[in-house]
Structure formats: structure tokens, C-alpha cells
Design a protein that fits this description.
Blueprint: H1 3-14, H2 20-31, H3 36-43, H4 47-68, H5 70-90, H6 96-112
């Protein structure tokens, strides 16, 4: 997975654990694709400080993922969901009641997981 995408996903999961300034800098760098110089102008911070914030936040986010592993769990659940739905699509139902039950199971999986 590309690093920028990975960091964006980690920000979605663990971003609330960062300070507001850290979240802002990371959002500007990874989601808005601004340069360090552009971010330093917007945040009234030196370019070096912006660089340090990004490096520190990357270490924090990686540390959170190493300890909590939510991103890994999310991807495993997504893969399991796809697999289950794929298997359910193979099930052939002869009567209307069975088809309705199967449809409700699929809907429940899609809506809740």
C-alpha cells in the first residue's frame, strides 16, 4: 500500500489522538498535498518544525497501529465480509422464504460490518 494512503487511513483511525495542530499539519500534508513551505506559511511555523511534526506524527501513528492494530483488523474484517458475501451469493434458494432470509442476511452483513 502506498505510504500516503496508509498514513491517511491511520489518520482516519487514530487522528483524534493527535493534537489539533498535529492533525492540521498532517491533513495539509497528506490530504491537501501541500509542501512543507506552504504549510509553514499557513501555520506560522518554521519549515523545520513542520517537518518534525510530520515525522513525529508518523512515528506516533505507526506506534498506535503496532499496539492496537485497528487498521489490520479493519482490513481483515473487510476481506472476511467480501468472502462471506461471495459464498452467500453461491447459495441457491428454491423458495421465496429462503431467498428473503438470504437477502436479509446479506443486507445485515453489508449494513453492520
Amino acid at each position: 500500500m502506498e505510504d500516503r494512503v496508509r498514513v491517511s487511513i491511520l489518520m482516519d483511525i487514530y487522528g483524534k489522538l493527535l493534537t489539533e495542530k498535529q492533525r492540521n499539519v498532517m491533513d495539509l500534508y497528506y490530504n491537501d498535498d501541500l509542501s512543507l513551505s506552504e504549510i509553514s506559511e499557513l501555520t506560522f511555523t518554521s519549515r523545520q518544525a513542520v517537518y518534525d511534526i510530520i515525522k513525529r506524527c508518523n512515528k506516533l501513528l505507526d506506534g498506535y497501529e503496532d499496539k492496537i492494530a485497528l487498521m489490520d483488523r479493519i482490513f481483515k474484517m473487510r476481506d472476511a465480509k467480501k468472502s462471506i458475501l461471495g459464498e452467500l451469493n453461491k447459495v441457491k434458494c428454491a423458495d421465496k422464504d429462503s431467498k428473503l432470509i438470504l437477502k436479509n442476511i446479506k443486507k445485515s452483513i453489508i449494513d453492520n460490518f
